[in-house]
Amino acid sequence: MLNYAPDLDRVFQALADPGRRLMVERLSRGPASVSELGRPLDMSLAAVLQHVQVLEASGLIRSYKAGRTRTCSINPVALRSAEDWIADRRSMVERRLDRLGDYLAQTADKPDPGRAAEPGEAANVHEEQ
Amino acid sequence: MLNYAPDLDRVFQALADPGRRLMVERLSRGPASVSELGRPLDMSLAAVLQHVQVLEASGLIRSYKAGRTRTCSINPVALRSAEDWIADRRSMVERRLDRLGDYLAQTADKPDPGRAAEPGEAANVHEEQ
């Protein structure tokens, strides 16, 4: 019944935290180490690592360790899957509202053929719905 | 330091649940009552109402009550704010990857002027970074 890819749950959950969004924003400008990601955030390295793990589990970022440094980079595919989901719904809403707008404009343009148009009639269009 | 509008937290949190995404999808096709929203979901009306409240608190939907029926409709503005946030980061990533691609293509096209180009040299381009 709920046939969405389960990772959208994790992607949106990962984006629901302002600190993690700041990390995504930083990584959209290029790869960074975990300590670089933590620098603008007022939290322990352990807390930063936990956020990195949430982001990685969601697929939004990838990381690899070289020596003692873990370097993170962004995965635009996961970012796009979330964007596409929202964009599809938003465009459906806007198309529907456009059609409603067209309908209202037509109703306002074309007075009831059964009687003569009166000045100011278009102002009643909302009450006629 | 974390200067995002706080509602993005709530919008992404609201979208992190597959049942709530199904409700958003239904509402993107037009207004619906709470019981209509709950119909495809295997949960109690109380649970459906709780999801509706999360969606409403995030700004993704609005609702009004007439008699005993609460009717919900979508708010495309909140949907667009989430979409814009993701799209801005995703396009930043893609511009950066395009520039990197251009750089790699140029490096592959132009052999080191200090020595003669050898066949298969372009294959080394990743090791030269």
Give a verbal description of the structure.
Two copies of one chain form a homodimer. Helix content of chain A is 57%, strand content 11%. With 129 residues, chain A is mainly alpha-helical. In chain A, strand 2 and strand 3 form a beta hairpin. The first copy, chain A, is rod-shaped and about 80 Å long. The C terminus of chain A is likely disordered. At the A-B interface, helix 1, helix 2 and helix 5 of A face helix 1, helix 2 and helix 5 of B.
In short:
Chain A has helices spanning 7-15, 18-28, 34-38, 45-58, 76-109, and strands at 32-33, 61-66, 69-74. By secondary structure, chain A is mainly α.
Furnish the topology, listing elements before pairings:
The structure is a homodimer of 129-residue chains.
Chain A: H1 7-15, H2 18-28, E1 32-33, H3 34-38, H4 45-58, E2 61-66, E3 69-74, H5 76-109
Antiparallel strand pairs in A: 1-3, 2-3
Helix pairs in contact in A: 1-4
Keywords:
homodimer; 5 helices; mainly alpha; three-stranded antiparallel sheet; disordered C terminus; 129 residues; 57% helix
Give me the oligomer status: homodimer
Helix content of chain A: 55-70%
Structural class of chain A: mainly alpha
Radius of gyration of chain A: 25 Å
Please give the largest β-sheet of chain A. 3 strands, antiparallel
List SSEs of chain A in N-to-C order: HHEHHEEH
Count all strands of chain A and give the number: 3
Name the largest protein-protein interface in this structure.
Answer: A-B, 40 and 40 residues
What distance lies between the first and last C-alpha atoms of chain A, to the nearest angstrom? Answer: 35 Å
Give the integer mean of the pLDDT values of chain A.
84
Strand content of chain A: 5-15%
The backbone outline of chain A, from C-alpha atoms, is rod-shaped
What strand line-up does the widest sheet of chain A have? 1-3-2
Total helices of chain A: the number is 5
Question: Low-confidence parts of chain A, pLDDT < 50 over ≥5 residues?
Answer: 117-129
